[in-house]
Amino acid sequence: MNRYVRQMTLPDVGAEGQARLSAARVLVVGAGGLAAPALPLLAGAGVGQLTIMDRDEVALSNLHRQTLFTQSDCGRLKAEVAAERCHALNDDCAVVAKKQALTSENAASLVAQADVILDCADSYAASYILSDTCLAQGKPLISASVLGLSGYVGGFCCGAPSLRALFPDAPDSAASCATAGVLGPVVGTIGAIQAQMALNLILGIDPSPLGQMVRYDGRTLRSSSFRFEDAPEPSTCFRFLSATQLTADDQIVELRSADEAPIPVHPSSVRISPDRLQEIDPNKDKRLALCCATGLRAWRAAENIQPDWPGEIVLVAASTS
To answer: Is residue 232 domain-resident?
Structure first.
């Protein structure tokens, strides 16, 4: 029996839709909790190629939501294990494991090789790098985020507004799953919606998920959605760069203390804490690069400095460099 017979019975799929799925190339950045439902659902549906990108290892404290893995996988690279599971589920699907982090250096080539991009990275820097790259290349991005008992997923770029159009300012909170906690079913729900949006996009199901935001609250078990096709792109933004893209000609500020980061992000950097930004050398002929762990402190510092710094300001998230 054809493994796809149940979905090909749908008028929205059929033989033509299944052929579209078979020809599709999907890039999934991050192989954690969001990818745990998304990857097997995409592989099971018969997506032709999955590229899975993640440099981290499987950890016991994440298994409650990263259900693609087992205890025996702890210590192994997530991308490698996820690729094995997807291939075991459907060997019709070509699976490529990229055991590295997404950066502003490798994003363009990876996005160019994909038809649909899923942001499952749980990283401010990765999300905005992907959005900027997809906007420039006209590629669709399905981006999601979960914290605590709630999360969102939206379809961006490729004719729809980018992530920056909805979230132009620095996030209000620096909380993460590690610091604020998270329940597995919330992550699983959002990840499954990501997979559904990707399939809808590939199959051409109306309405398009591009330009749509879905929010889910695990506490109340309620979801809501809205369209944002008319959201304007911001006139200016702070790009994320990798540390290797900085030069001695840049004004580089390391916002992390020596205790937090004994080795600064760049040899030419100067350490200045976020509460002493007025000490930054006002050499306005240089590009200003602000560096921290996740990019959030750098982004907030950039927002404070921008009125007095007419030149370009870029951000470096050391955790993705």
So the answer is: no
